[in-house]
Amino acid sequence: MSAPPKKLEMESEDSSSCESDGDEGMEYTGNEKVEIDFEGRSPIDADFFGIKQLLQQLFLKAHLNVGELTELIIGQNNIGCVVKQSDAEELTAEDDDESDDGLMEVFGVTSVINLSSKREHEVIGQLRTLLSELASEHASTEVASTVKAALDDPGKPLGLIINERYVNIPCQISVPLLDSLSKEITKAKEKSLPYDFSYYLFICKLHKTEKPSKKKKNKQPTEETLWSNPEEEIIDQSTDLKFEFPVESDSGLGGSWMEEDKTMAPFRRVLFLPADSLPTVIDRIKEAVA
């Protein structure tokens, strides 16, 4: 049985879809739009492979037990949600095809994981070690010290916010997702559950490229940064506690590049946001995407 939908209003126009029943000689221009309604649902066991695939997209080749992290997300009661097509349940019933185990149904996942508790889980230890090593290697001395203090101080819990979705889903969808998560965290704190965080941690996907300046040939190339989740740029602007690192490969950002363009290099940027700043940041995201 699927989980009941949460009251989230989401609508997306997918401009990357191509209709296959058009005239054979017509060329696809990329302007075709398909309206898709999404809804948030509490994650269930059937969402395991869909959530896991999204996490693998975020962590790539990192030495993490992503399956256990997926189980932790599903196992949390009343915290977080997965994004599904509003009529996905009807389509599944009509097709009577359960071969993909929900893989194609999960378009996104939003949740939070307490990195200061649940240390008996292998993946929590792996995440803590990974963050410590990455901060030591890539962060400034000040940021690295803050990261170490946040990881070592059980009195100031650190929450990892998972904010993952497929790239063609517009950032407007992040507003109800993050707003709902913030409200769920508040309710959990009122019940004295372990969600009273001091910092929230975001791991953001971005790509960088360098383009030669058009003004002067001998001028230093200008670097472009593309965010997979554009709303995370607003979170980035809201904190000075951050560092970034390159990753080996990333198929999350597709597209055809012009010959003069350079290959997009994938990075991850780690953001530490004071927990009491989250409502203000969500309001800024609302204003930006309105």
UniProtKB/TrEMBL annotation:
InterPro entries found in the cross-reference section? BCP1_family
Give the stretches traversing the membrane.
Answer: none
Q: Name one GO cellular component term.
A: nucleus
**Chain intervals with Acidic residues compositional bias:** 11-26
Record's compositionally biased regions (Basic and acidic residues): 1-10
Region labeled Disordered — which residues? 1-30, 212-231
From which residue to which does any coiled coil extend?
Answer: none
State the similarity comment.
Answer: Belongs to the BCP1 family.
PANTHER family referenced in this protein's UniProt entry, alphabetically:
BRCA2 AND CDKN1A INTERACTING PROTEIN (PTHR13261), BRCA2 AND CDKN1A-INTERACTING PROTEIN (PTHR13261:SF0)
Protein's UniProt name = Protein BCCIP homolog
